[in-house]
Amino acid sequence: MILQTPILALLLAAALSNAVALWTAWFGLRVLRGWDIASGSRAQLRLERRTGLASTLFGFVMLIQIAALLLFVFNADRMATLFVGAMCAVGTLNVNAYGFPALYLKIAVFFAASLWLILDRVDRQGRDYPLTRLKFSGALLIAPLVLTGAGTELAFFLGLKTDVITSCCSKMFTPANDGIAAEMTGTAPATALWFLGLAGVAVAATGTVSLAAARLQWLFALAGGVFFAAALTAIVSVISLYVYDHPNHHCPFCLLQREYGYVGYALYVPLFAGTALAMGAGLLSLFAGTGSLATVLPGALRRLVWASLICHGLFGAVVLSVIATSRLVLFG
After folding, report:
1. How far is CA 194 from CA 105, 163, 183, 324, in A?
2. Boundary of a domain, candidates 141, 168, 195
3. Other residues' Cβ atoms within 10 Å of the Cβ of residue 1
4. How far is 284 from 124, CA to CA, in rounded Å?
5. Residue 84 forms beta bridges with which residues?
6. pLDDT at 40
């Protein structure tokens, strides 16, 4: 089982990420102890040169971690045919106790990696690298997350047994169960769509204000977070029903399958990207008063907000297309 190509690719990426994350965390401690941009000492100059190398390597690993989330989900869906009772990625992830924790950790690393890459890009544009301490502090926090995710992922893959009878998505996404999945499934379709629509208006309004006034990006980030929660709830509660043309099929993972046109990727990629970009704008807005970033930060914030709004708009367009082309009638 573990010798399958996607699994080997994921484990290789995890091993590389662990090695670089550990080295970057060790180097980050040196930066936090000895970084002094005003100093012209040999130690400071050596530290500055190595900082560029460390940032490049860690940034490369963060990109790998972002791609690994997509590969992990794709592989879990592809492997569903190997397990009795599995219809999609849910069945694969339910084969043992490490499947869903591994997924949640990968999602957490995705957002952490996205924010770190945004910080790194802006820091390189400042003449005195004003965010260096902050981004290496972030690397120190991200490293344990990467290591924990890799360990959980390895435990999940080692625990995959084809003789295990797993549960399908219809057992998980039903209002009869307990937990957040059941709560999302049990949300009334009209309520979910209204919540999504209002969250979309909030994103558009706060994005427009932040672009026009060049401030309040933190409010845009907050609206993006609310929209993310509303979108996931709506996908489970109602959007999935329109995709499947079925009033009781709520699975958000079957959307990733070929028979449904891989529409899940068209929904999740812009949703996750838009949320990460909005969070990045909110984070960068905290450093608006930083001297060397005074001329750089406004443009960076505008680009992040615009990119996030475009991603949110793409998500909304896919949702409207799904509803318009569905044969299912839920209202009226």
Report:
1. 30, 44, 17, 17
2. 168
3. 13
4. 14
5. 165
6. 67
Classify residue 118 by its DSSP letter. H
Structure tokens at 29: 């401690």
Distance CA 206, CA 227 (A): 12
Contact 162, 324 (CB under 8 A): no
What is the full DSSP assignment across 4-23? Answer: SHHHHHHHHHHHHHHHHHHH
Q: 2-59: per-residue pLDDT in tens?
A: 667 889 999 999 999 999 999 999 999 988 887 777 676 777 778 778 888 899 999 9
Vertex 134 angle, CA 219 and 114, to 5°:
60
What is the rounded CA–CA span in Å between residue 106 and residue 114?
Answer: 12
Domain count, the chain: 2
Domain shared by 194 and 330, yes or no: yes
Range of the domain at 89: 1-168
Out of 105, 133, 168, pick the residue that ends a domain.
168
